[in-house]
Each structure stands twice: as structure tokens, then as C-alpha cells.
């Protein structure tokens, strides 16, 4: 504190407690920047930014054309999504092949057609009457 400021404070003690407009604006800016909601939103946006960056890098560096690379990524979700994306059956090394979609490990992912898969799903499973998992006493 300079000598002049010390004299002002001694003469006008109430003025030293009064904040200037610049100090009030600085405090508002600091409070806004450090608000818990803002920090939480910034932290929540990190996975979104990282995922979109990784997705963009994959599309640019993929050996497939961009549209086919998008279909290849969509096939990761399962055989139904692969069929909707236009990749109903894929052999090892082709776009749309993912090991998780190759149930019998024969090198062909999503080898069954959707019609046969839906027919299998419609057949009800028969259980013996005495083999219930939970039985009332």
C-alpha cells in the first residue's frame, strides 16, 4: 500500500470498504467461471468431445470410403443394425465383420438372415411344469 492510499484510508475509512465497479465485475466473472454447474457441464462434455474426435479420426483413417466406414461402425451394434445399414452378411476382413457378430466363429458375421432369426424368436420355449424358478409355498 502506497503512502497516498494509507492517507486516503485514514481520512475516509468507509470509502476503502466500498468496492469499485471494476472489482464488482471481476467478482461476478470469477463467480460465474467457478460455478459448480459450469464445472460439472464442462466435465460432462469431455466424453462427448473425446468420442466425436475418435469417431472422426476413424472415419478419416479407415481403409473404407466414409459411407462404408459408417456402416462398418453401425454393424458393431448387432446383426439387425448391420442389415438395416445394408451389410447383412460379412466375411472376415470385409466391412461389417466384427468378431462379436460371428457366433459360430466360421469367419462369417451375421450369417443367418433376419427372416430365419425372427422365425426362431417366435417359437415359444416349453418348460416342464415342475421346473419353475420361483414357486409359492
TrEMBL record:
Keywords: Membrane, Transmembrane, Transmembrane helix
Transmembrane segments: 39-59
Top-rank lineage group of the source organism: Bacteria
Pfam families: Excalibur (PF05901)
Domain Excalibur calcium-binding: 78-110
InterPro entries from the UniProt entry: Excalibur_Ca-bd_domain (IPR008613)
Protein name as catalogued: Excalibur calcium-binding domain-containing protein
The species this protein was found in: Ruegeria alba
Lineage of producing organism: Bacteria, Pseudomonadati, Pseudomonadota, Alphaproteobacteria, Rhodobacterales
Amino acid at each position: 500500500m502506497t503512502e497516498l492510499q494509507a492517507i486516503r484510508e485514514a481520512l475516509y475509512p468507509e470509502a476503502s470498504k466500498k468496492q469499485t465497479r471494476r472489482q464488482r465485475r471481476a467478482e461476478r466473472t470469477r463467480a460465474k467461471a467457478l460455478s459448480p454447474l459450469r464445472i460439472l457441464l464442462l466435465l460432462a462434455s469431455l466424453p462427448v468431445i473425446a468420442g466425436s474426435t475418435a469417431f472422426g479420426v476413424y472415419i478419416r483413417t479407415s481403409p473404407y470410403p466414409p459411407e462404408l466406414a459408417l456402416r462398418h461402425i453401425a454393424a458393431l451394434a448387432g446383426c439387425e443394425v448391420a442389415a438395416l445399414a445394408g451389410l447383412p452378411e460379412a466375411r472376415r476382413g470385409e466391412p461389417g465383420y466384427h468378431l462379436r457378430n460371428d457366433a459360430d466363429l466360421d469367419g462369417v458375421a451375421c450369417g443367418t438372415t433376419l427372416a430365419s432369426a425372427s422365425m426362431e424368436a417366435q417359437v415359444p420355449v416349453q418348460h416342464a411344469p415342475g421346473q419353475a424358478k420361483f414357486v409359492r409355498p
